[in-house]
Design goal:
Helix content: 25-40%
GO cellular component, one term: myosin complex
Strand order of the largest sheet: 4-3-2-1-7-6-5-8
Number of domains: 1
Number of strands: 12
Protein name: MYO1H protein
Structural class: alpha+beta
Oligomer: single chain
Strand content: 25-35%
GO molecular function: cytoskeletal motor activity
Organism: Lanius ludovicianus
InterPro entries: Myosin_TH1
Order of helices and strands: HHHHEEEEEEEHEEEEE
Length: 217
């Protein structure tokens, strides 16, 4: 009986300590923990660099709304901007690298070049998000085959765990994320597909190989 009472008191004590800890959390800390739970579900045991990312708090955004060009702000007016980060976008055909911004609002993702919106992806139409199991920062955002979209979006982001987590939460599509090994297919447009190959090498690089594939080292 004494052992049962002791175990019951121990559980009550633990429950009170947990309740006290939860009540003492700031809104910012609570948001961090909620995001990290999603990151764990998506990447834990699947992608290199995940363990190192655990100790790095996610920022609310990498760039402020005021950092965006006024013309872009005017084009997406009425939408609540949630997250902005610099990215490298690779062309779907020649794979030329271009500096862009990824803007995530409450309802859509925008790929932005200075004062232009290059592509808009409504979360409701987002088909998938793919990344490799290696330590690269490549992300492919898969879009539907329709006249509104030029093809899937190939991005490289320094803060890949943070960016993908934000996108998952805002789009409410955690289940569509795939961490792949070796290679992945992406849609170029007009029914055409391309292949991206992931490999390990002495230094990081992204290039178009002799076969016309995008190779990520």
């Amino acid at each position: 009986f004494l052992m049962q009472t002791s175990e019951m008191l121990r559980k009550i004590c633990m429950r009170n300590l947990v309740r006290k800890y939860c009540r003492g959390l700031t809104a910012e800390r609570k948001a961090q923990l909620q995001q990290k739970v999603v990151t764990s579900a998506v990447f834990s045991g699947k992608k290199e660099g995940y363990l190192e990312s655990l100790s790095q708090p996610f920022l609310e955004t990498r760039l402020k709304e005021n950092d965006l060009n006024p013309k872009v702000l005017q084009l997406i007016r009425g939408e609540n901007i949630k997250y902005v980060t610099p990215v490298i976008k690779y062309d779907r055909n020649g794979f030329k690298a271009r500096e862009r911004l990824l803007v995530l609002t409450q309802s859509s993702a925008y790929v932005v070049e200075m004062a232009k919106i290059k592509q808009k992806i409504e979360y409701s139409t987002l088909k998938g998000i793919s990344t490799s199991n290696l330590s690269d920062g490549i992300v492919v955002i898969h879009v539907p085959e329709d006249n509104k979209q030029k093809g899937d979006v190939i991005l490289q982001c320094e803060h890949i765990f943070e960016m993908v987590t934000k996108l998952c939460i805002l789009a409410n599509k955690q289940s569509v994320v795939k961490v792949v090994k070796g290679s992945l297919r992406f849609r170029v447009g007009s029914g055409k597909e391309g292949t991206m190959v992931f490999t390990v090498g002495p230094e990081p690089q992204v290039f178009k190989d002799k076969t016309g594939q995008l190779t990520v080292v």
